[in-house]
Amino acid sequence: MKGIILAGGSGTRLYPITIAVSKQLLPVYDKPMIYYPLSVLMLAGIKDILFITTPNDQEAFKKLLGDGTHLGCNFEYSVQEEPNGLAEAFIIGEKFIGNEKVALALGDNIFHGNGLVNLLRSKTDVSGASIFAYPVKDPQRYGVVEFDKDKKVKSIEEKPSSPKSKYAVPGLYFYDNNVVEYAKKVTPSDRGEKEISSINQMYLQNDALEVGVMTRGMSWFDTGTVESLDDATEFIRVLQNRQSTMIGCIEEVAYLSKFIDKGSLAKLYKQYGKSKYGEYLKEMGETILQ
To answer: What Pfam family is a match for this entry (predicted)?
Structure first.
């Protein structure tokens, strides 16, 4: 399976913070936001990842992440000229995807929780489509899943004014290769965007859509507003300081996923200087080599 991280958009809900910098490059506590969805795809065992950015921001992402070889990965980059919707990611990434299955992660979504790794890896051989549902207070901001009394999916709507349930679809999707052709059939919505919900609806109509409800042990943040960005930052800060761990540490994930060996991990701290992040990596590398 290949992976795509959509890191475009104008981030207008975060203005003036995002006037001069991509939302996905903003800090969430001690690391750039993009590290979190990247670590999620890597935890799923995905090494080949395409970053879709705005034209103005691509060089900054390349400077931050490089070509991925230091992490045992292969990173590629493409541009989304205008914020035309999530479904366009599969059209932009058609050549990159080739004949493979693909996971799409939104660059401003953060996931954490017990059992996350097993959950992710169970989706990488998906037949059809596999997405998630998460209960929220403001479902009108998201794609919304409606279930019947037997918990079977009845419908999916994108940002409905009158949501039919409290279950939002988080920004993490797993698809078979049919997604590319489905994406080409999507017509722009009233918002002028090619909605990912339209793709999910196509899979649903073909009885090929699986929706798993995320359990209480899972945490999901869509950091598209100042309030949610602040909530995510506080969540990461508290958890890391209490547990002496690092969430979204891409070098650690690369090692634990066996993308890189002990020797490679032990050298990667140097680029981070005397930062807390660098110290964490240095200590981890030294412990492993003992």
So the answer is: NTP_transferase
Residue 154, SS3 per DSSP: strand
pLDDT tens, position by position, 193-248? 899 989 999 999 999 999 888 877 889 999 989 999 999 999 999 999 998 889 99
Measured CA to CA, the distance from residue 118 to residue 48 in angstroms comes to 19
What is the per-residue pLDDT across 49-73, written as a single tens digit (0 to 9) for each? Answer: 999 999 999 999 999 999 999 999 9
Name the CATH topology of 2-259.
Spore Coat Polysaccharide Biosynthesis Protein SpsA; Chain A (3.90.550)
Write b or e for each residue in 227-253: b if 16 or more Cβ atoms lie within 10 A of its Cβ, otherwise e.
ebbeebbebbeeebeeeeebbbbbbbb
Contact 222, 228 (CB under 8 A): yes
Task: Copy the structure tokens of residue 70.
Answer: 């230091």
Cβ atoms of residues 133 and 214 within 8 Å: yes
Are 4 and 50 contacting, i.e. CB atoms less than 8 angstroms apart?
yes
CA distance 64 to 58: 10
User: DSSP state, 51?
Assistant: E
Residues in CB range of 256: below 8 A, 6 or more apart: none
